[in-house]
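Quarterly update, task 2.4: alpha-D-glucopyranuronic acid-bound model.
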Amino acid sequence: MKKRLAILLSLLLIGMLILSGCAGTEQKRIVRIGHNQSSTHPTHIALLEFQDYINEHLGDKYVVEVYPSELLGSQTDMVQLTQTGAIDYCVASNAILETFSKDYEIFNLPYLFASKESYHNVMDDEDVTEDIFESTEQAGFVAVTWLDAGTRNFYTVKKAIEKPADLKGLKIRVQQSPTNIEMMKLLGGSATPMGFGEVYTALQSNIIDGAENNELALTDNGHGDVCKYYSYDMHQMVPDILIGNIAFIEKLTEEEKEIFQKGYELVNNVQRSEWVKAVEKAKEKATNEQKVQFIYPDQMPFVEACRPLHEKVLSRNEALKPIYQKIQQYNQKYPSQAE
Ligand code: GCU
């Protein structure tokens, strides 16, 4: 019921947004950005900086509005709104984008990056990301920058996950991506795909036994109120991606494009530095207030179980092979600190 009401309100809001167009602010073009995080999340903080930056440099022509907390719908809804130009930008998990372009599968692979440094260097390397970021042009949008979403780990209501066998028989929420479903299969759990906004209620009502995400999901989204075991198996580092409607971006003048480009870089920088602080705070809160127990299992059995997925994804999309090789070079340069 609550969900239906939320969808209805979102649709109403979207309808109003479409109808409002440029109204109210006379000549100014409203630039709408949606995301699914709270208004204290690093992503929201970074997008507010973008809003200020654009307003400061192009305020006579554009007004940026940022909509947090799935106000404009789930991530999948928001990607579709960005495709059609009903909104101009949104933040989508790389996992979701896999259904719009197969090339995004690469960054959804479990244990793809040997370390955080390797992950960040890969994502900063345009030789790696450029083609992937442009691969959705036909679908009506492109990626303009990436955001940190940390490492994804399992957390459960009743039972600590120490090894893959502990996942057997457990219903674990995963993001709506085929690679994530395949990953869960290999690890032995029962994958339950659903949107981020539905996870809290599903945990609380025992529809699922656990989920997998970064530490902020425990605090920001309250999952740590229900789940008391968080296991650092570190299975994925899945970036979030800021995508923009291609028609909107192409219509910008060269000078405006440069300013927007600086704005995207600002989003990336601010979000990444806020991220480090936010994770520390989340761990502290989860430990002290929510009484979540952090577990550090041996990662090797998880790594071994997931390995076949690399070969599978590369053989069904040969174009990813050179990118995968490049990532291996970064992995050698920035190896795991655990080794
Ligand atoms: C993280 C990520 C989001 C994603 C969410 C999820 O919070 O930053 O982009 O939607 O995980 O698991 O769905």
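Highlight for this quarter: The pocket of alpha-D-glucopyranuronic acid is lined by residues 36, 75, 93, 149, 175, 196, 213, 217, 240 (CB under 6 Å).
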